[in-house]
Design a protein that fits this description.
There is one protein chain. This protein is of the alpha/beta class. Among the domains are: 110 residues, Phosphohistidine domain (Glucose Oxidase, domain 1, 3-Layer(bba) Sandwich); 109 residues, PtsI, HPr-binding domain (Enzyme I, Chain A, domain 2, Orthogonal Bundle), CATH 1.10.274. The protein has 25 helices and 17 strands. Helix 9 links the parallel strand 5 and strand 6. Bound molecules: phosphoenolpyruvate and magnesium ion. Magnesium ion (MG) binds next to helix 20. Magnesium ion binds next to helix 20.
Protein backbone atom coordinates (compact mmCIF):
# COMPACT_ATOMS: atom_id res chain seq x y z
CA UNK A 1 0.00 0.00 0.00
CA UNK A 2 1.25 3.43 -0.91
CA UNK A 3 1.91 5.89 1.95
CA UNK A 4 2.59 9.60 1.93
CA UNK A 5 5.18 10.90 4.40
CA UNK A 6 5.85 14.60 5.07
CA UNK A 7 9.11 16.29 5.98
CA UNK A 8 10.94 19.57 5.49
CA UNK A 9 11.76 20.35 1.85
CA UNK A 10 15.39 21.46 1.68
CA UNK A 11 16.54 20.80 -1.87
CA UNK A 12 14.10 20.80 -4.76
CA UNK A 13 13.92 18.27 -7.56
CA UNK A 14 12.26 14.89 -7.97
CA UNK A 15 13.93 11.58 -7.25
CA UNK A 16 12.40 8.20 -8.08
CA UNK A 17 14.24 5.09 -7.01
CA UNK A 18 14.73 2.27 -4.55
CA UNK A 19 15.28 3.10 -0.88
CA UNK A 20 18.58 2.31 0.78
CA UNK A 21 18.14 2.47 4.53
CA UNK A 22 21.53 3.42 5.89
CA UNK A 23 22.01 2.09 9.42
CA UNK A 24 25.36 2.96 10.89
CA UNK A 25 27.00 0.59 13.31
CA UNK A 26 27.33 2.84 16.26
CA UNK A 27 28.26 2.28 19.90
CA UNK A 28 26.48 4.60 22.32
CA UNK A 29 28.81 6.53 24.61
CA UNK A 30 28.59 5.12 28.15
CA UNK A 31 30.03 6.66 31.26
CA UNK A 32 32.53 4.95 33.49
CA UNK A 33 34.79 6.24 36.20
CA UNK A 34 38.55 6.05 35.87
CA UNK A 35 41.26 6.35 38.48
CA UNK A 36 43.48 9.45 38.52
CA UNK A 37 46.35 7.27 37.21
CA UNK A 38 44.29 6.25 34.17
CA UNK A 39 43.64 9.87 33.16
CA UNK A 40 46.82 10.19 31.10
CA UNK A 41 45.88 7.04 29.09
CA UNK A 42 42.38 8.35 28.50
CA UNK A 43 43.72 11.71 27.27
CA UNK A 44 46.10 9.88 24.93
CA UNK A 45 43.18 7.78 23.63
CA UNK A 46 41.24 10.99 22.94
CA UNK A 47 44.21 12.57 21.14
CA UNK A 48 44.62 9.49 18.95
CA UNK A 49 40.93 9.36 18.12
CA UNK A 50 40.90 13.04 17.19
CA UNK A 51 43.96 12.55 14.95
CA UNK A 52 42.41 9.48 13.33
CA UNK A 53 39.11 11.29 12.69
CA UNK A 54 40.92 14.31 11.20
CA UNK A 55 42.97 11.99 8.98
CA UNK A 56 39.79 10.30 7.70
CA UNK A 57 38.41 13.70 6.71
CA UNK A 58 41.71 14.76 5.10
CA UNK A 59 41.89 11.50 3.11
CA UNK A 60 38.32 11.96 1.95
CA UNK A 61 39.03 15.57 1.00
CA UNK A 62 42.06 14.49 -1.05
CA UNK A 63 39.99 11.83 -2.82
CA UNK A 64 37.30 14.36 -3.74
CA UNK A 65 39.62 17.25 -4.58
CA UNK A 66 40.30 16.56 -8.27
CA UNK A 67 36.64 16.86 -9.28
CA UNK A 68 34.99 18.89 -6.50
CA UNK A 69 34.94 22.73 -6.50
CA UNK A 70 36.79 24.39 -3.62
CA UNK A 71 33.67 26.06 -2.22
CA UNK A 72 32.07 22.64 -1.80
CA UNK A 73 35.20 21.15 -0.21
CA UNK A 74 34.98 24.04 2.26
CA UNK A 75 32.15 22.15 4.01
CA UNK A 76 34.70 19.48 4.96
CA UNK A 77 37.24 22.15 5.94
CA UNK A 78 34.73 23.58 8.42
CA UNK A 79 34.52 20.21 10.16
CA UNK A 80 38.29 19.86 10.16
CA UNK A 81 38.64 23.30 11.69
CA UNK A 82 36.06 22.52 14.38
CA UNK A 83 37.68 19.17 15.09
CA UNK A 84 41.08 20.77 15.60
CA UNK A 85 39.78 23.76 17.53
CA UNK A 86 41.20 23.83 21.08
CA UNK A 87 37.67 24.40 22.46
CA UNK A 88 36.86 20.84 21.50
CA UNK A 89 40.02 19.16 22.70
CA UNK A 90 40.84 21.24 25.78
CA UNK A 91 37.25 21.17 26.99
CA UNK A 92 37.11 17.38 26.70
CA UNK A 93 40.46 16.92 28.46
CA UNK A 94 39.18 19.17 31.20
CA UNK A 95 36.08 16.97 31.58
CA UNK A 96 38.24 13.82 31.84
CA UNK A 97 40.18 15.44 34.67
CA UNK A 98 37.26 17.09 36.46
CA UNK A 99 34.86 14.13 36.36
CA UNK A 100 37.46 11.31 36.27
CA UNK A 101 35.48 9.84 33.40
CA UNK A 102 36.26 8.06 30.13
CA UNK A 103 37.03 9.99 26.93
CA UNK A 104 33.71 9.08 25.20
CA UNK A 105 31.66 10.52 28.04
CA UNK A 106 33.88 13.59 28.40
CA UNK A 107 33.53 14.27 24.67
CA UNK A 108 29.78 13.82 24.77
CA UNK A 109 29.53 16.34 27.64
CA UNK A 110 31.71 18.84 25.77
CA UNK A 111 29.59 18.37 22.61
CA UNK A 112 26.40 19.02 24.60
CA UNK A 113 27.92 22.17 26.08
CA UNK A 114 28.85 23.55 22.65
CA UNK A 115 25.45 22.62 21.19
CA UNK A 116 23.83 24.53 24.04
CA UNK A 117 25.94 27.60 23.22
CA UNK A 118 24.96 27.47 19.51
CA UNK A 119 21.36 26.85 20.47
CA UNK A 120 21.23 30.19 22.27
CA UNK A 121 22.43 32.20 19.25
CA UNK A 122 19.67 34.22 17.63
CA UNK A 123 21.01 34.14 14.08
CA UNK A 124 19.37 31.08 12.45
CA UNK A 125 22.42 30.27 10.29
CA UNK A 126 24.80 30.25 13.27
CA UNK A 127 22.24 28.40 15.42
CA UNK A 128 22.25 25.64 12.85
CA UNK A 129 25.99 25.14 13.30
CA UNK A 130 25.05 22.86 16.20
CA UNK A 131 24.49 20.20 13.54
CA UNK A 132 28.16 20.52 12.62
CA UNK A 133 29.15 20.13 16.28
CA UNK A 134 27.07 16.95 16.46
CA UNK A 135 28.68 15.57 13.30
CA UNK A 136 32.20 16.32 14.52
CA UNK A 137 31.55 14.78 17.95
CA UNK A 138 30.10 11.69 16.28
CA UNK A 139 33.11 11.24 14.03
CA UNK A 140 35.52 11.40 16.97
CA UNK A 141 33.24 9.06 18.97
CA UNK A 142 33.27 6.60 16.07
CA UNK A 143 37.01 6.56 16.04
CA UNK A 144 37.15 6.22 19.86
CA UNK A 145 34.87 3.19 19.72
CA UNK A 146 36.40 1.84 16.50
CA UNK A 147 33.06 1.94 14.69
CA UNK A 148 33.49 1.05 10.99
CA UNK A 149 33.90 4.25 8.99
CA UNK A 150 33.06 3.09 5.48
CA UNK A 151 29.88 3.93 3.68
CA UNK A 152 28.34 1.24 1.46
CA UNK A 153 30.12 1.04 -1.88
CA UNK A 154 29.06 2.74 -5.09
CA UNK A 155 27.35 -0.31 -6.62
CA UNK A 156 24.93 -0.40 -3.66
CA UNK A 157 24.14 3.31 -3.73
CA UNK A 158 23.93 4.28 -7.40
CA UNK A 159 20.44 5.58 -8.26
CA UNK A 160 19.19 4.83 -4.74
CA UNK A 161 17.41 7.15 -2.34
CA UNK A 162 19.25 7.15 0.96
CA UNK A 163 17.20 7.01 4.16
CA UNK A 164 19.29 7.82 7.23
CA UNK A 165 19.05 9.27 10.73
CA UNK A 166 21.35 12.07 9.69
CA UNK A 167 24.06 12.68 7.08
CA UNK A 168 27.19 14.75 7.51
CA UNK A 169 28.41 17.00 4.67
CA UNK A 170 31.23 14.45 4.18
CA UNK A 171 28.69 11.60 3.81
CA UNK A 172 26.68 13.68 1.36
CA UNK A 173 29.71 14.48 -0.79
CA UNK A 174 30.82 10.86 -0.88
CA UNK A 175 27.31 9.69 -1.74
CA UNK A 176 26.99 12.26 -4.49
CA UNK A 177 30.12 10.78 -6.05
CA UNK A 178 28.42 7.41 -5.81
CA UNK A 179 25.53 8.95 -7.77
CA UNK A 180 22.66 8.67 -5.32
CA UNK A 181 19.27 9.92 -6.58
CA UNK A 182 18.23 11.75 -3.41
CA UNK A 183 18.11 11.50 0.37
CA UNK A 184 15.75 11.61 3.34
CA UNK A 185 16.96 12.16 6.90
CA UNK A 186 15.27 12.06 10.26
CA UNK A 187 17.15 15.08 11.64
CA UNK A 188 18.47 18.38 10.29
CA UNK A 189 16.96 21.64 9.11
CA UNK A 190 17.01 23.81 5.98
CA UNK A 191 20.07 25.76 7.17
CA UNK A 192 22.25 22.75 8.05
CA UNK A 193 25.41 22.44 5.98
CA UNK A 194 24.12 19.13 4.65
CA UNK A 195 20.96 20.86 3.36
CA UNK A 196 22.93 23.74 1.84
CA UNK A 197 25.26 21.24 0.21
CA UNK A 198 22.34 19.25 -1.23
CA UNK A 199 21.01 22.45 -2.81
CA UNK A 200 24.44 23.32 -4.22
CA UNK A 201 24.86 19.83 -5.64
CA UNK A 202 21.28 19.65 -6.93
CA UNK A 203 20.38 16.50 -4.94
CA UNK A 204 16.62 16.29 -4.13
CA UNK A 205 16.43 16.09 -0.33
CA UNK A 206 13.97 16.09 2.54
CA UNK A 207 14.94 16.32 6.22
CA UNK A 208 13.06 16.09 9.50
CA UNK A 209 11.17 12.90 8.51
CA UNK A 210 11.12 11.68 12.08
CA UNK A 211 10.34 7.99 11.71
CA UNK A 212 11.83 7.54 8.25
CA UNK A 213 13.77 4.40 9.13
CA UNK A 214 10.69 2.85 10.73
CA UNK A 215 8.36 3.64 7.83
CA UNK A 216 10.69 2.76 4.96
CA UNK A 217 12.51 -0.48 4.21
CA UNK A 218 15.47 -0.95 1.87
CA UNK A 219 14.34 -1.96 -1.62
CA UNK A 220 10.96 -0.19 -1.47
CA UNK A 221 10.24 2.23 -4.31
CA UNK A 222 10.15 5.87 -3.28
CA UNK A 223 9.24 9.17 -4.87
CA UNK A 224 10.93 12.17 -3.25
CA UNK A 225 9.45 15.56 -4.06
CA UNK A 226 12.09 17.98 -2.81
CA UNK A 227 9.90 20.98 -3.59
CA UNK A 228 6.87 19.89 -1.58
CA UNK A 229 8.78 17.99 1.11
CA UNK A 230 6.85 14.77 0.50
CA UNK A 231 7.88 11.15 0.13
CA UNK A 232 5.59 8.57 -1.44
CA UNK A 233 6.49 5.08 -0.31
CA UNK A 234 5.47 2.29 -2.72
CA UNK A 235 3.62 4.65 -5.09
CA UNK A 236 0.76 3.41 -7.27
CA UNK A 237 1.10 3.40 -11.05
CA UNK A 238 -0.72 6.70 -11.44
CA UNK A 239 1.62 8.58 -9.09
CA UNK A 240 4.62 6.97 -10.75
CA UNK A 241 3.41 8.07 -14.17
CA UNK A 242 2.74 11.63 -12.97
CA UNK A 243 6.10 11.99 -11.25
CA UNK A 244 8.02 10.41 -14.15
CA UNK A 245 6.50 13.06 -16.40
CA UNK A 246 7.34 15.82 -13.88
CA UNK A 247 10.90 14.49 -13.74
CA UNK A 248 11.20 14.49 -17.55
CA UNK A 249 9.88 18.08 -17.60
CA UNK A 250 12.35 19.03 -14.89
CA UNK A 251 15.25 17.63 -16.92
CA UNK A 252 14.23 19.39 -20.12
CA UNK A 253 13.71 22.60 -18.17
CA UNK A 254 17.23 22.30 -16.75
CA UNK A 255 18.63 21.87 -20.28
CA UNK A 256 16.59 24.80 -21.51
CA UNK A 257 17.78 27.02 -18.64
CA UNK A 258 21.35 25.92 -19.19
CA UNK A 259 21.20 27.24 -22.72
CA UNK A 260 20.52 30.73 -21.29
CA UNK A 261 23.96 30.81 -19.65
CA UNK A 262 25.93 33.80 -20.92
CA UNK A 263 22.92 35.21 -22.81
CA UNK A 264 21.43 38.60 -21.87
CA UNK A 265 18.07 39.00 -20.12
CA UNK A 266 15.83 40.86 -22.60
CA UNK A 267 12.05 41.15 -22.55
CA UNK A 268 9.99 40.29 -25.63
CA UNK A 269 9.70 44.03 -26.29
CA UNK A 270 13.47 44.48 -26.17
CA UNK A 271 14.13 45.96 -22.75
CA UNK A 272 17.43 44.73 -21.31
CA UNK A 273 17.18 43.80 -17.64
CA UNK A 274 20.29 43.70 -15.47
CA UNK A 275 20.74 40.52 -13.43
CA UNK A 276 23.42 40.47 -10.74
CA UNK A 277 24.12 38.08 -7.88
CA UNK A 278 24.12 38.33 -4.07
CA UNK A 279 27.16 36.99 -2.22
CA UNK A 280 28.28 36.63 1.39
CA UNK A 281 31.93 35.84 0.73
CA UNK A 282 34.35 36.25 -2.24
CA UNK A 283 34.33 32.43 -2.70
CA UNK A 284 30.60 32.61 -3.56
CA UNK A 285 31.51 34.26 -6.88
CA UNK A 286 32.65 30.86 -8.15
CA UNK A 287 29.25 29.32 -7.46
CA UNK A 288 27.49 32.31 -9.05
CA UNK A 289 29.63 32.05 -12.15
CA UNK A 290 28.64 28.41 -12.61
CA UNK A 291 25.23 29.87 -13.46
CA UNK A 292 26.28 33.09 -15.16
CA UNK A 293 29.37 35.26 -15.34
CA UNK A 294 27.73 38.32 -13.89
CA UNK A 295 28.48 41.14 -11.43
CA UNK A 296 27.47 41.52 -7.78
CA UNK A 297 24.57 43.70 -6.64
CA UNK A 298 25.02 42.84 -2.94
CA UNK A 299 28.14 41.68 -1.11
CA UNK A 300 27.16 41.29 2.56
CA UNK A 301 30.48 42.18 4.21
CA UNK A 302 29.28 41.51 7.75
CA UNK A 303 29.80 37.80 7.09
CA UNK A 304 33.55 38.50 7.22
CA UNK A 305 33.06 40.07 10.66
CA UNK A 306 30.79 37.25 11.82
CA UNK A 307 33.22 34.57 10.59
CA UNK A 308 36.08 36.23 12.49
CA UNK A 309 33.90 37.26 15.45
CA UNK A 310 35.61 40.67 15.52
CA UNK A 311 36.00 43.82 13.43
CA UNK A 312 38.86 42.84 11.11
CA UNK A 313 41.54 45.47 10.44
CA UNK A 314 41.73 47.53 7.25
CA UNK A 315 44.27 45.33 5.54
CA UNK A 316 42.40 42.08 6.19
CA UNK A 317 39.23 43.65 4.79
CA UNK A 318 41.09 45.14 1.83
CA UNK A 319 42.49 41.71 0.89
CA UNK A 320 38.99 40.19 0.89
CA UNK A 321 37.43 43.00 -1.15
CA UNK A 322 40.34 43.05 -3.59
CA UNK A 323 40.04 39.27 -4.05
CA UNK A 324 36.35 39.69 -4.91
CA UNK A 325 37.07 42.53 -7.37
CA UNK A 326 39.77 40.50 -9.08
CA UNK A 327 37.57 37.40 -9.33
CA UNK A 328 34.96 39.50 -11.14
CA UNK A 329 37.36 40.50 -13.92
CA UNK A 330 35.76 43.85 -14.73
CA UNK A 331 32.18 43.07 -13.67
CA UNK A 332 30.87 45.49 -11.00
CA UNK A 333 31.06 44.67 -7.29
CA UNK A 334 28.58 46.34 -4.94
CA UNK A 335 30.10 46.20 -1.46
CA UNK A 336 27.61 46.79 1.32
CA UNK A 337 29.10 48.36 4.44
CA UNK A 338 28.63 46.30 7.59
CA UNK A 339 25.10 45.54 8.64
CA UNK A 340 25.70 44.27 12.16
CA UNK A 341 23.03 44.04 14.82
CA UNK A 342 19.66 42.30 15.22
CA UNK A 343 19.78 39.04 13.24
CA UNK A 344 23.50 39.43 12.42
CA UNK A 345 25.55 39.85 15.57
CA UNK A 346 29.10 39.20 16.72
CA UNK A 347 30.46 38.78 20.23
CA UNK A 348 33.24 41.36 19.80
CA UNK A 349 35.09 43.03 22.63
CA UNK A 350 34.00 46.60 21.85
CA UNK A 351 31.59 48.06 24.41
CA UNK A 352 28.39 48.91 22.53
CA UNK A 353 26.52 49.91 25.65
CA UNK A 354 23.64 47.99 27.25
CA UNK A 355 21.91 45.27 25.24
CA UNK A 356 18.98 46.71 23.25
CA UNK A 357 15.49 45.39 24.04
CA UNK A 358 14.58 45.51 20.39
CA UNK A 359 17.81 45.17 18.41
CA UNK A 360 16.16 45.31 14.96
CA UNK A 361 15.07 48.84 15.84
CA UNK A 362 18.27 49.64 17.69
CA UNK A 363 21.85 50.50 16.90
CA UNK A 364 22.05 48.45 13.77
CA UNK A 365 23.92 48.77 10.43
CA UNK A 366 24.79 52.38 9.45
CA UNK A 367 23.54 53.68 12.83
CA UNK A 368 26.21 51.68 14.59
CA UNK A 369 28.88 52.70 12.04
CA UNK A 370 28.10 56.41 12.47
CA UNK A 371 28.21 56.05 16.24
CA UNK A 372 31.62 54.34 16.06
CA UNK A 373 33.41 56.13 13.20
CA UNK A 374 36.85 54.94 14.33
CA UNK A 375 35.73 51.32 13.94
CA UNK A 376 33.99 52.11 10.63
CA UNK A 377 36.79 54.09 8.95
CA UNK A 378 38.98 51.00 8.27
CA UNK A 379 36.11 49.55 6.22
CA UNK A 380 35.70 52.77 4.24
CA UNK A 381 39.47 52.79 3.57
CA UNK A 382 39.41 49.13 2.53
CA UNK A 383 36.45 49.55 0.14
CA UNK A 384 37.99 52.66 -1.41
CA UNK A 385 41.34 50.91 -1.85
CA UNK A 386 39.66 47.92 -3.52
CA UNK A 387 38.13 50.33 -6.05
CA UNK A 388 41.60 50.85 -7.55
CA UNK A 389 41.41 47.27 -8.88
CA UNK A 390 38.08 47.32 -10.71
CA UNK A 391 34.55 48.74 -10.71
CA UNK A 392 33.37 48.95 -7.09
CA UNK A 393 30.19 50.56 -5.71
CA UNK A 394 29.58 51.24 -2.03
CA UNK A 395 26.13 50.52 -0.64
CA UNK A 396 24.86 51.67 2.77
CA UNK A 397 22.32 49.59 4.74
CA UNK A 398 19.41 50.84 6.80
CA UNK A 399 19.57 54.58 6.12
CA UNK A 400 16.56 56.31 7.64
CA UNK A 401 17.07 60.00 6.98
CA UNK A 402 19.10 62.46 4.93
CA UNK A 403 21.05 63.67 7.98
CA UNK A 404 22.64 60.23 8.28
CA UNK A 405 23.63 60.52 4.66
CA UNK A 406 25.34 63.85 5.33
CA UNK A 407 27.33 62.37 8.22
CA UNK A 408 28.26 59.47 6.00
CA UNK A 409 29.49 61.74 3.19
CA UNK A 410 31.68 63.61 5.68
CA UNK A 411 33.19 60.31 6.84
CA UNK A 412 33.82 59.17 3.27
CA UNK A 413 35.59 62.49 2.61
CA UNK A 414 37.77 61.88 5.67
CA UNK A 415 38.57 58.37 4.41
CA UNK A 416 39.51 59.72 0.97
CA UNK A 417 41.66 62.43 2.54
CA UNK A 418 43.47 59.78 4.66
CA UNK A 419 44.19 57.64 1.62
CA UNK A 420 45.51 60.61 -0.37
CA UNK A 421 47.87 61.36 2.52
CA UNK A 422 48.99 57.75 2.54
CA UNK A 423 49.41 57.93 -1.26
CA UNK A 424 47.10 54.96 -1.81
CA UNK A 425 45.10 54.69 -5.03
CA UNK A 426 41.28 54.62 -5.15
CA UNK A 427 38.43 55.59 -7.46
CA UNK A 428 37.71 59.28 -6.75
CA UNK A 429 34.21 58.83 -8.24
CA UNK A 430 33.31 55.63 -6.43
CA UNK A 431 29.49 55.37 -6.75
CA UNK A 432 27.64 55.47 -3.44
CA UNK A 433 24.14 54.08 -3.02
CA UNK A 434 21.58 53.34 -0.34
CA UNK A 435 19.61 50.29 0.55
CA UNK A 436 15.98 51.25 0.82
CA UNK A 437 14.79 48.94 3.56
CA UNK A 438 13.15 51.23 6.10
CA UNK A 439 9.68 52.61 5.21
CA UNK A 440 10.85 56.18 6.03
CA UNK A 441 13.60 55.85 3.42
CA UNK A 442 11.18 54.45 0.84
CA UNK A 443 8.83 57.40 1.38
CA UNK A 444 11.81 59.76 1.01
CA UNK A 445 13.34 57.77 -1.86
CA UNK A 446 13.37 60.76 -4.22
CA UNK A 447 15.36 62.87 -1.73
CA UNK A 448 17.83 59.99 -1.32
CA UNK A 449 18.03 59.40 -5.08
CA UNK A 450 18.93 63.02 -5.76
CA UNK A 451 21.96 62.74 -3.48
CA UNK A 452 23.12 59.28 -4.48
CA UNK A 453 24.34 57.24 -7.44
CA UNK A 454 21.95 54.29 -6.98
CA UNK A 455 19.29 52.75 -4.73
CA UNK A 456 18.66 49.10 -3.92
CA UNK A 457 15.47 47.82 -2.33
CA UNK A 458 16.05 45.45 0.59
CA UNK A 459 12.69 43.72 0.84
CA UNK A 460 13.72 41.42 3.70
CA UNK A 461 13.89 44.37 6.08
CA UNK A 462 11.39 46.58 4.27
CA UNK A 463 8.72 43.92 4.87
CA UNK A 464 9.83 43.47 8.49
CA UNK A 465 9.64 47.19 9.28
CA UNK A 466 6.52 47.94 7.23
CA UNK A 467 4.48 45.12 8.70
CA UNK A 468 5.99 45.37 12.21
CA UNK A 469 7.06 41.74 12.34
CA UNK A 470 10.37 40.25 13.32
CA UNK A 471 11.76 38.52 10.23
CA UNK A 472 13.21 35.64 12.27
CA UNK A 473 10.23 35.11 14.57
CA UNK A 474 8.32 31.99 13.43
CA UNK A 475 5.29 33.07 15.47
CA UNK A 476 4.57 35.98 13.12
CA UNK A 477 5.90 34.52 9.88
CA UNK A 478 2.30 34.04 8.67
CA UNK A 479 2.12 37.83 8.29
CA UNK A 480 5.29 38.02 6.20
CA UNK A 481 3.93 38.63 2.72
CA UNK A 482 5.73 40.62 0.01
CA UNK A 483 2.35 41.08 -1.67
CA UNK A 484 0.94 43.12 1.20
CA UNK A 485 -0.39 46.27 -0.54
CA UNK A 486 1.60 48.56 1.80
CA UNK A 487 4.84 46.81 0.84
CA UNK A 488 4.00 47.03 -2.86
CA UNK A 489 3.30 50.76 -2.53
CA UNK A 490 6.69 51.40 -0.92
CA UNK A 491 8.49 49.38 -3.60
CA UNK A 492 6.64 51.26 -6.30
CA UNK A 493 7.42 54.67 -4.74
CA UNK A 494 11.12 53.77 -4.69
CA UNK A 495 11.22 52.56 -8.30
CA UNK A 496 9.38 55.66 -9.53
CA UNK A 497 11.60 57.98 -7.44
CA UNK A 498 14.68 56.47 -9.06
CA UNK A 499 13.24 56.99 -12.52
CA UNK A 500 12.31 60.60 -11.77
CA UNK A 501 15.78 61.34 -10.42
CA UNK A 502 17.50 59.41 -13.23
CA UNK A 503 19.18 57.03 -10.75
CA UNK A 504 19.26 53.24 -11.15
CA UNK A 505 17.17 51.22 -8.70
CA UNK A 506 17.76 47.53 -8.06
CA UNK A 507 16.20 45.05 -5.69
CA UNK A 508 18.48 42.77 -3.66
CA UNK A 509 16.05 41.38 -1.05
CA UNK A 510 14.75 37.80 -1.35
CA UNK A 511 11.64 38.97 -3.19
CA UNK A 512 13.83 39.58 -6.26
CA UNK A 513 15.02 35.95 -6.20
CA UNK A 514 11.51 34.51 -6.16
CA UNK A 515 10.37 33.78 -9.73
CA UNK A 516 6.73 34.19 -8.76
CA UNK A 517 7.28 37.96 -8.33
CA UNK A 518 9.47 38.58 -11.42
CA UNK A 519 6.65 39.68 -13.71
CA UNK A 520 5.06 41.84 -11.04
CA UNK A 521 8.36 43.66 -10.48
CA UNK A 522 8.99 44.01 -14.22
CA UNK A 523 5.54 45.54 -14.60
CA UNK A 524 6.35 48.00 -11.80
CA UNK A 525 9.37 49.13 -13.81
CA UNK A 526 12.17 47.32 -12.00
CA UNK A 527 15.01 46.72 -14.44
CA UNK A 528 17.81 45.57 -12.14
CA UNK A 529 17.56 42.42 -10.00
CA UNK A 530 20.29 41.23 -7.62
CA UNK A 531 19.53 37.63 -6.75
CA UNK A 532 20.62 34.23 -5.47
CA UNK A 533 22.87 32.29 -7.83
CA UNK A 534 20.48 29.37 -8.22
CA UNK A 535 17.58 31.64 -9.26
CA UNK A 536 19.53 33.39 -12.06
CA UNK A 537 18.62 31.26 -15.05
CA UNK A 538 15.02 30.71 -14.02
CA UNK A 539 14.46 34.45 -13.65
CA UNK A 540 16.23 35.16 -16.93
CA UNK A 541 13.92 32.67 -18.62
CA UNK A 542 10.85 34.50 -17.23
CA UNK A 543 12.20 37.89 -18.33
CA UNK A 544 12.93 36.61 -21.82
CA UNK A 545 9.30 35.46 -22.07
CA UNK A 546 7.65 38.60 -20.70
CA UNK A 547 6.29 41.60 -22.52
CA UNK A 548 6.46 44.85 -20.53
CA UNK A 549 3.76 46.57 -22.57
CA UNK A 550 1.23 43.93 -21.56
CA UNK A 551 2.47 43.66 -17.94
CA UNK A 552 2.28 47.39 -17.12
CA UNK A 553 -1.52 47.90 -17.25
CA UNK A 554 -2.14 44.64 -15.38
CA UNK A 555 0.35 45.58 -12.67
CA UNK A 556 -1.26 49.02 -12.38
CA UNK A 557 -4.48 47.21 -11.46
CA UNK A 558 -2.60 45.16 -8.87
CA UNK A 559 -1.25 48.34 -7.30
CA UNK A 560 -4.78 49.71 -7.02
CA UNK A 561 -6.03 46.61 -5.19
CA UNK A 562 -6.22 46.62 -1.40
CA UNK A 563 -7.16 43.02 -0.75
CA UNK A 564 -4.26 40.53 -0.54
CA UNK A 565 -6.37 37.66 -1.91
CA UNK A 566 -7.19 39.69 -4.98
CA UNK A 567 -3.54 40.73 -5.39
CA UNK A 568 -2.39 37.12 -5.11
CA UNK A 569 -4.93 36.00 -7.69
CA UNK A 570 -3.87 38.74 -10.11
CA UNK A 571 -0.16 37.97 -9.64
CA UNK A 572 -0.95 34.31 -10.36
CA UNK A 573 -2.66 35.32 -13.57
CA UNK A 574 0.41 37.36 -14.58
CA UNK A 575 2.53 34.26 -14.17
CA UNK A 576 0.38 32.04 -16.32
C1 LIG B 1 17.23 43.04 2.82
O1 LIG B 1 16.94 43.50 3.93
O2 LIG B 1 16.38 42.81 1.93
C2 LIG B 1 18.62 42.71 2.48
C3 LIG B 1 18.98 42.36 1.28
O3 LIG B 1 19.53 42.78 3.49
P1 LIG B 1 19.72 41.66 4.62
O4 LIG B 1 18.85 40.49 4.27
O5 LIG B 1 21.17 41.33 4.61
O6 LIG B 1 19.28 42.38 5.85
MG1 LIG C 1 18.49 44.31 5.19
Amino acid sequence: MSILINGIAVSKGIAIGEAYVYERERNEAVEYTITPRQQADEIARLANAQKKAAKQLRDLRKKLEPTTPADILAFIDTHLMMMEDPTFYDGTVNNIKTYSCNAEWALQKQGERLIQIFNEIEDPYLRNRQDDVRHVVQRIQDSLTNAPEHLPDASQLKGRIIVADDLTPADTLTMQHQKIAGFITEYGGPLSHTAILARNLGIPAIVGVHSARLLIKSGETLIVDGQQGTVINTPDLRSLKTYRKLKRDEISRKHLLHRLKGKPAITLDNKTILLHGNIDRPEDIKVLHQFDKTGIGLYRTEMLFIDKNEWPDENTQFQYYKRAVQRLKGQPLTIRTIDLGADKEIQDTIDHGPMAHNPAMGLRAIRRCLKEPQAFLPQLHAILRASAFGPVRMMIPMLTNIEELQQLFALIETAKHNLRERRLAFDENLPIGAMIEVPAAALAAYAFAKKLDFLSIGTNDLIQYTLALDRIDDEVSYLYNPLNPAVLQLINITIQAGKKAGVPVSMCGEMASDPSYTRLLLGMGLDYFSIQANALLEIKHIINNSKLSSLRPRVRKILEATDITEIEARVNQLNH
